[in-house]
Amino acid sequence: MTAISTPEPAGVIHDIGYRHYDGARLGRGHARVALTRHSLRGAFGLGRSFRAKVMPFVLLVIMLLPAIVSIAGMALAQQRGPVIDYPNFAATMSVVLAIFLATQSPVLVAPDLRFRVLPLYFSRPVTVGDYVVAKVTAMSLALLILQWLPLTVTFVGELLVNPPGDPGTGRYLASMVLSVVYSLMLACLGLAIASLTPRRGLGVAAVIAFYLFTTAVSQVLTEILGSMSQDDSAGWALLINPFYLVDAVQVWLTGASAAMGNSYPGGASGPVAALGIVALTALGGAVLILRYRKAASA
Amino acid sequence: MSTVAGISYRMVIGRRRIWLMVLLPAGLIALAVLLRMLGSADERSALMLMQIFGVGTMLPLLGLIAGTGVIAPEIDDGTIVHLLSKPISRPAIAITKFGVAASLLALFGALPAFAAAYLLVGMEAGIAFGFAVGAFAGGLAYAALFLLLGVITKHAVAIGIAYALIWESVVGVFVPGARNFSIQQWAQSVAFQFNTSGFFTKPSVGIGFALIAIAVVTVGAVLWAGQRLRSFTLAGEE
Q1: Does the keyword Membrane apply (chain B) (predicted)?
Q2: Between the CA of residue A268 and those of A235, A236, A244, A272, B29, what are the distances in Å?
């Protein structure tokens, strides 16, 4: 028996059972839809722990409270009109929408940044643009659900109770369109601010700080200018609050009353507010694209 | 202890968090300057600025950012285990971190409140001094409360803003009884004590109740946070 045999080959590729993917390649469009769907579910904590669901669903229930009060009120008093008129719903409930935006925006953007998985996304057919569009779409849809559900419940309630007078169909439809504007603007702003930090807690604080800061500045200036009886300047100061930008456009286009008893300055304020909305939305979108271009290369 | 304090300071000041901490008081002072230029530097404007912006907006946000900022990032990253493995008593860690948060609130909250009110009315009617003391007292309670929240839950900031916005701002407006459990109202009550201006409507919370409440919340929350740290378990990512 010879002691020395031929040496074993140095490197062996063992078959450890990796399988090839032979199915259909669904491509970029499918990836976009999947990412949007995943993000939208994440915004409501679906597919996550119970704790992640508490905040979004509590806020959804709070959004539905005025609808219940309105329907009960219309049934008992036999009078037309919800407690908050349809087109003023979002601006009146701005606190709830802002808290939802602040708590859920970081949920959508922070983990991918924190765990540095973005280069993995972008090694697939998904581009930076696709990623940003998917996230903005998901957040906008989430905010839309938060507005469309109570608006529609109220309207259906109004039709069923059918108190004397004409139903507010026109105002309801206007509010449905208006909520698209609110959702898109808020989603772009909220996600842009949240994407600046990989920490969820800080992202929440930053988004709510933006809302509180603009609200407080606009409120202080409006009240002080109003007390100096400079009503025109006071009206302009209202427009520092992004929610009132959309409300001012609503007043300009539909001629309905403003939310919270506000009075916006006449004349140019409507078009200026519309420009402001476009500018804020575009700014948010641009920040997002730049942020993710940088993250993709990091 | 100074090391623990140093780490905590660096965690808030040395990161992006500081931009938020600077932006809010900068906004307050900018508003004061703007109001001065508009020619409405009177007691009424000063009070409105302090109540709506100073105590109503800036203070809870700063409390949230500083209070959770001194501990939550460490828990998030898991680096807190290094601190907890050292032979330092856990309550002492909580007290040190509270001290850091409180000093930051004094620097970024109470001091700018004084400066902004001083810009508008000088030392008139005790507004500047009153709101500086009020903001400091409220800041203590906020720092302690949000520090405790940061130790208890990973959703500290979300719960904190729900408290500050829904409970203090919305429920407090409709339900007078809710104001008794609002740190903002306690801060206003303290500020009212130094006030001699007729424009300041008497806060609904008495000074005796406010002082006791601030003391109880501050001491209780810091002690509870220390207690929680003694039996601390790191939870994984969701």
Answers
A1: yes
A2: 12, 10, 15, 6, 30
Q: Please give the tally of structural domains in chain B.
A: 1
The beta-carbon neighbor of B155 closest among A51, A217, A219 is A51
Total Cβ atoms within 10 A of residue A18 = 5
Distance CA(B64)–CA(B101), nearest Å, equals 10
Tokens describing residue B190: 């303290």
ipTM: 0.91
Restricting to A residues 193-222, those with a Cβ less than 8 Å away from any Cβ of B are 196-197, 199-202, 204-206, 208-209, 212-213, 215-217, 219-221
Range of B128's domain?
Answer: 2-237
Interface A–B counts its CB contacts (< 8 A) at 98
B72 to chain A, closest Cα gap in Å? 8
Q: Is B33 on the interface with A (CB under 8 A)?
A: no
Alpha helices in chain A (DSSP H): 27-43, 50-77, 89-92, 94-114, 118-122, 128-161, 169-194, 200-227, 231-238, 242-254, 269-297
Res B165 pLDDT > 80: yes
Q: Tens of pLDDT along B184-200? A: 999 999 999 988 887 88
Q: Is B174 helix (H, G, I), strand (E, B) or coil?
A: helix
The rounded distance, in Å, linking the Cα atoms of A138 and A140 is 5
Q: Give residue B136's identity as a one-letter amino acid code.
A: F
Q: What percent of chain B has pLDDT over 70?
A: 98
The pTM score is: 0.92
Going by pLDDT thresholds of 50, 70 and 90, the confidence category of residue A78 is confident
Which residues in chain A are contacts of B158 at CB distance < 8 A? 55, 102-103, 204
Residues of A with Cβ-Cβ distance to B16 under 8 angstroms: 196-197, 202
Q: How far apart are CA B127 and CA B120, in angstroms?
A: 10
Instruction: Report the alpha-carbon angle A118-A124-A130, nearest 5.
Output: 70
Report the range of poorest mean pLDDT among A12-26, A28-42, A150-164, A193-207: A12-26
